[in-house]
Amino acid sequence: MMSLVPTPDALPMASGYFELLLLLTFPLHLVFMNAMLGGTMLAIWAHFKREPVHERLAYKIAQVLPLLIAFAINFGVPPLLFVQVVYGHLIYSSSVLMGVFWLSVIPVLLTVYYAVYIYDFKFWSLGRRGLPILMFAGVLMLMIAFLFSNNMTLMLTPETWDIYFKNSSGTFLNLAEPTLWPRYLHMLVGATAIGALVIALLGRLWAKQDAEVGELAQRVGLRVFLAVTCVQIMVGLWFLVALPADVMMMFMGRNLFATAVFLVAIATVMGVIFLAVKRRLVLCGGLALLLLYLMSLMRAFVRTGYVDNLFVTQIVEAQRDFSPLLLFVVTLVIGLLLIFWMIKVSLQAQEN
């Protein structure tokens, strides 16, 4: 069975450097991805209310959705590349097994992009007809998330790869994996919570132009964040107990660092709930960002637990060469500065 796992490619430096960059960039992608998904759900809810202030809130969300999708895509590229660098021998194999679905992500994502642009630019002329367009885009977002969850679990379970000899058409999905559904729901529920919090934070900016919309965004965003975070606790526990026993025990004392991160994450969840109840939006947002980093680190421990069991962590290090990493870091810093500048200009334009 282990012969199905390809030999890892040689790396120009220790894999830990790429793991660190993966942990640094992935939560940034999560911020925009969560805001995109959570914002879409709140806009759908606002459409159903049939009130002028809710309609104006939906329009405000419509204006930022194309930007959120663009940022989610661009911030999603670095962590996906780093996963492919370190775990390429795993993720390329799993991608082949579900190749038809995996390749469909691009056209589906382009369709989402097109739908939200129509929803934004023709918001007032569409009226109630904008709701099915937005719901269609939301369903496609959920589909993309489901395919990513499939691949991220399939890459860690090579014992299922022999299905290729029965189904080589690239249409295999890892539906029998016990962690697939809790992992997928954990991502969706968390995205809804963080997305609602982002909309609440944006509500503080929107209040300068429309006090009613700003107050509504903050009130509803915080309520949704609080309610969904409580649900997320239960889903997170389901995800935890669905893990293989040896992986789960990493958070129960077998690995002191993983256990410490798990306990800090629990305390951070309690902290964001407290700050949300007190309506301390900025502090709550900052602590929620920390929580995303902690959750990303916990997922890295889960991934490591699976990979250690497969004995495929012996990444070969070629002659050490830091120049590609240096070029990436310089490019990343320049890119981040440009992105923050674009966000600043966009927000200033909305205020005017």
UniProtKB/TrEMBL annotation:
It comes from the Bacteria. The keyword Transmembrane helix applies. The chain crosses the membrane at residues 20-45, 57-77, 97-119, 131-149, 184-203, 224-244, 256-276, 281-302, 322-343. It comes from Desulfuromonas acetoxidans (strain DSM 684 / 11070). This is Polysulphide reductase, NrfD. The keyword Transmembrane applies. Keywords: Membrane, Transmembrane, Transmembrane helix.
